[in-house]
Specification:
Layout: E1 2-9, E2 12-19, H1 20-24, H2 32-35, E3 41-45, E4 51-55, H3 63-66, H4 80-84, E5 90-92
Antiparallel strand pairs: 1-2, 2-5, 3-4
């Protein structure tokens, strides 16, 4: 299942999508939890009793601002959360 966290406003759509099927089989023990410099990720137990990652509630309405340090407008390096996620379960919409 793809879980989408974020919002849409007049300036665009800002979502972080997490493929929970890939997240369940994480071979590196949820490295995204420490890969994000802002600490935006947390673990949760889904409806099927699987441990997966989600975006903390306090960050969901501010993704464009909270991710800005990792997303400069030019010469953008790979995003730390995406690099840390070896199963490639994390994607950004913008």
């Amino acid at each position: 299942m793809i879980a989408n966290y974020g919002y849409k406003d007049g300036s665009g759509e800002y979502y972080i999508s997490i493929d929970t099927d890939k997240c369940i089989d994480c071979p590196v023990g949820r490295a995204c939890l420490t890969g994000c410099p802002k600490g935006m990720f947390e673990t949760m137990t889904d409806d099927y009793d699987d441990e997966v990652v989600q975006i903390k509630q306090s960050f969901r309405r501010n993704l464009a601002y909270d991710c800005a340090d990792c997303k400069p407008s030019s010469n953008r390096p790979p995003l730390p959360c995406v690099v840390a996620c070896t199963p490639a379960a994390i994607k950004h919409s913008w």
